[in-house]
Amino acid sequence: MPTNRPALEPLRSPYRIQYLTDEQLDKLQEATLDILENVGVKFPSEKALNVFIEHGATVDKNTQIVKIKRDLVFKAMKTMPRFFVMGARIPEYDLNLEEGTTYFTTDGCGVEVVDLDATQPRPSTKADVGMMARVADYLPSIGFYWPMVSAQDCGVTSPLHELEVGWNNTVKHFQSETIMGGREATYAVEMATVIAGSRENLRKRPPLSSLICTVSPLMQDHPGIEAAMVFAGAGIPVGFLAMPTLGTTAPSTQAGALAMGDAEIISATVLLQLMFPGCPIYHSMMQAWADMRTGGYVSYPRDARGRYGVVEMAHHWGMPSLGACYGTDSVRPGTWQSAAEPALDPFLAGLAAPEIVTGMGLSRTYTRLFPEQIILDDDLYQRARAYLQRMDVDDESLAMEAIRNVGPGGHFLGQRHTRDHMKTSLVRGVTHQLDSNSKYRDPIEVARERVRWILKNHEPEPLEASQQAELTRILAAADKELA
Amino acid sequence: MSSETPSLQPIRPTRHFHVIDDEQIHQLADGTLEILAETGVHCPSEKCLRIYADHGAQVDFEKQIVRLAPDLVTDSLSTAPRYYKMGARSPSHDIDLDGKSMFCATDGCGIETIDFATRQRRPSCKEDVAAMARISDYLSSIGFYWPIVTAADHPSTSPLHELDASFNNTVKHVQSETVMGERLGKYAVEMARVVANDDETMRKRPPLSLLVCCIAPLAQDKEGMESALQFAEAGLPVGFMSMANAGSTGPATLAGNIVAGHAEIVSALVLIQMAYPGAPVFHSFMPGIMHPRTGAFLTTALENELPYVIGVELAHHWGVPTLAGIFGTDAATPGWQAAEEASTALLLCALAGAETGSGLGLLETCRLLVPEEIILDNDIYHRVRIEAAGLDTSREALALDVIKAVGPRSHYLKQRHTRENIRRRVFSDLANQSNPLGGMRDPVEAAREKVDWILKNHHPQPLEEVQQKELTRILAGAEQEIGGRE
After folding, report:
1. Closest by CA position to A13, among listed A443, A415, A390, A322
2. Does residue A358 contact residue A337 with C-beta atoms inside 8 Å?
3. B114-123 contacts at long range (C-beta below 8 A, 24 or more positions apart)
4. In whole numbers, what is the pLDDT of chain A averaged over residues?
5. Which of B100, B102, B86 is nearest to B142 (CA)?
6. What is the rounded average pLDDT of the residues B80-91?
7. What is the sign, positive or negative, of the torsion defined by CA atoms of B266, B268, B274, B277?
8. What pLDDT was estimated at residue B486?
9. Cys staple from A187: which of A235, A259, A261, A478, with CB 3.0 to 4.6 Å?
């Protein structure tokens, strides 16, 4: 029996901050154009190179480097839709991307799981993807789902298995960051068509979107770009994510890293707009830092500026943005570090207003799933959401009558106004839950209990039997061809 | 051999931000004026009531209720300075409240300490105030020092001992939130004069300020108001804080709690301006929400943080600087909750233009000192400071020449630009610290180690010997008059 799911609670704020000035945004864009025209980007795909040649870009087939003049960049970018729909299995959970509304997703692509009752990690499986889809389906902070971990028990077709188990456990939009390669993408499009009901619906309300990583410095990934061309052809939204690492794969100054990453994203976007003018594309950049003592990847140094500047860079190009929040470097949840690093993220995201944002719920720099972490991250999200809302100031909330009744000294406990409002006045997060001795409970214990409750009680609406059978059939064919 | 106190690193936001529009500000301010005119504030000090009455307030001496007409409030506040300086022992650590920077203090008035050596929980003492002053002196995040705990080993004169321990262990400005009553006030002003060296310097660069709590709902504290008058007379800044608790000592709606709390603050600011026009004052609003099942004062419930920022905006509406409420976690141990609750409020208050904020370093809703918490809070402070400072897009930062030189593929490790700039990137000295086993150190452990390092290595410039002696003499005089160590 399906259970009630709370309505989505995206971030919507009357407040907005401009992180980079218009002049700085122009300067960064000029730098991107300079890189595209004079340095170029490597596209290891014959098909992509031919598209660029047809449209007049300078292509060196030998080195596979494409140089794009600014006129061609702007010509291609002109067809880019600023907003589009990311559909869901149930229309009421469709995400209509629009100015000032921000939807969050889970983190994704983790490789280890520490179960609620365990202390040691184990490799992640398809069942974990399903379990967390059910938790994400219930949480109003989660607008769409990234498969949180890799279905490592499913071999090379794991990305397609992640899709199947995802759609069987959430009605929300599904975004994959693992489907790479033209054939794989073709199967994914087939699966998405089953969910959407028809090719036409797939274009109108695509229940699937894809995120493709570029390779820094200044390269595209062959299977990634092949998949992107298949998705874009079917009307499925595609995002390009640059992850420049300051000091190793990028310059060690933030502005330089951002300009270079932007060139990677824009070059791929130009390709898709040239092939399929008007296809939905979004922009994403998550810069990181090299720890020069270990070569380690640090996503949260003290100076993580730029995390929200990239949102403005996307908007400056006229594209929606997938912002980057969370993803602590802490090895487990509930530590000081796991809160100190992402605490500002949802708040600043709300102020910069990317249309979509990843991602809650993983530790150890996106690699390890503790099921309770998503609840702790959700608490940070709800805290930010409260900050971002305008406060009520009207006759009832000003409480002048109650203040006059009480006067100096005394208390408000006997006032009807207090009785009427106290229940909604204190919004408890995981931090202010009481135990039987009226002491505050450990927030991590509260979070574990909430996950158990959701898994026990929440049953999203299942797919129709014919859809389930069809997905199974497609998976079997994919396993046969690709495995 | 003394060590140098690092330069202050205040938060200098590249942009400012309003969380509330002018219409709402006026609704809240009008609500406060209506309460002041119709309901009034209880003020149990004969001296204060006379000042109010002499300046045109409607005073009921029997009930000790003061009512203030809106014009009287706005006229009185018109003499309050919007900007001024809070001095330090070392001029380079003076704080300019100029509306461009936010300076933060430690938290204060805790009552228990996790002992630095034994790690056992015990009542706080003067030695804790001194040790934490030394740590605060070292941290660039700490712009001025609140005696972080009570010198409970000196019960009757503890506020003066806290000042003695503070002035002896930091060159930074000291703000007391415990000097209450005329007798303590008199000695505290004397001590400030010794540190400043003379009356004129004390007025120009006051090394001491005072924060006085009002009593919600709608009441003043006699002792607090009378010491505030003494401080104001000597030119030392005084501030008033409301800690109205929605549901018990304030209405259960946020806006109602704000207008009631502000009536307390504004009535006190008015008194000081009536008595000493132009005296430096500041405003502080740190409300709570009552936990409906325990009655506890909660500072960081999900919905309670916005009123802190609105407090900042209202201070500016009244034309005075603010002391914003930051940190002050409800958590009992350093960890996830303490970190979760801190940074957004700090960033918002900075973006709203708060001049000062308090405070770093305590747990259990400002009651428990765990020494390493200030180091963890310091890390969060700097994350916020850097976040507020904007991005460098100069030619050097854009690194176009380097990007062109490296081109597609390859890497940046060999570039001179990388060598020069990677060292300028700011990494946490707590998070991502490798341990010898190849894993990462627990940031809380790293913070504990840093506490030990600072206490071993950092010894701020001491007071001159003659000043030390003078403070000791004043303390002895106070103990003789008021009572000594028990």
Report:
1. A390
2. no
3. B114/B368, B114/B369, B114/B370, B114/B371, B116/B371, B116/B451, B116/B455, B121/B368, B123/B152, B123/B153
4. 94
5. B102
6. 96
7. negative
8. 46
9. A478
Q: Give chain A positions within 8 Å (CB) of B406.
A: 217
B109-B110-B112-B114 Cα dihedral, nearest 10 degrees: -120
For the stretch A151-161, pLDDT in tens is 999 999 999 99
- The model carries a pTM of 0.83
Higher pLDDT, A139 or B433: A139
Tokens 């919004």 belong to residue: A427
Query: Pairing state of beta strands B368-369 and B112-114?
Result: parallel
Strands B288-290, B245-246: pairing is: parallel
Span A210-238, pLDDT tens digits = 999 999 999 999 999 999 999 999 999 99
Q: Do B336 and A24 touch (CB under 8 A)?
A: no
Contacts of A483 (CB under 8 A, 6+ apart): A155, A156, A157
Q: At what angle do helices A158-167 and A182-196 cross, to 10 degrees?
A: 10
Other C-beta atoms lying within 10 Å of the C-beta of residue A274: 20
Q: What distance in Å separates the CA atoms of residue B228 and residue B210, rounded to the nearest whole number?
A: 7
- For residue A298, pLDDT over 80 is answered with no
Taking the CA of residue A436 and the nearest CA in chain B, the distance in Å comes to 11
Of A312, A306, A284, residue with least CA distance to A105: A284
Residue A86 C-alpha, separation from nearest chain B C-alpha, in angstroms: 30
Question: Which residue has tokens 């309670």?
Answer: B304
Query: Minimum mean pLDDT among A13-27, A219-233, A445-459: which range?
Result: A13-27
Cβ contact B301–A250 (<8 Å)? no
Contact B266, B214 (CB under 8 A): no
Residues of A in Cβ contact (< 8 Å) with B404: 35, 38-39
Distance CA B67, CA B58 (A): 5
Taking the CA of residue B416 and the nearest CA in chain A, the distance in Å comes to 10
Please give the pLDDT value at position B330: 82
